[in-house]
Amino acid sequence: MPEITLKDDGSFRVPEGRRLVLALEDNGIDILHRCGGNAKCTTCRVQFIRGEPTRMTEAEKERLEARGLLGEVRLSCQILCDHDMTVVPVNRISNSDVEDAGPRPADTITPTPIWIDAPPPVDSDTGGK
Ligand code: FES
How far is the CA of 40 from the centre of ligand 1 (A)? Predict the structure, then answer.
């Protein structure tokens, strides 16, 4: 079972293949998922400290590109827990002005995933150059 670690917030183990957004929510993390896990809103974004997946869904890439976030954050609704990861959930009920996280995402990734290689993370020291 993969171990999910939250920077400054402990760790827990989750069933192999669990959607990361659900793994976080079901372990008490008040992460937002305002579009219901459909790669539309980016509120489920996480920063990776360790274990960033080397693949992503096309839907995730398109949404992050459209928001200028590609290489900086990942969408937890588009990630499966298949190895150990350390993350920082960015948008939470407790640090936002919304009253609920959003519709609960389905157990499987939506839309139906088309997997592609993830671009390398942007190097914060060089701006990716
Ligand atoms: S992009 Fe909306 S919940 Fe993931």
Answer: 6
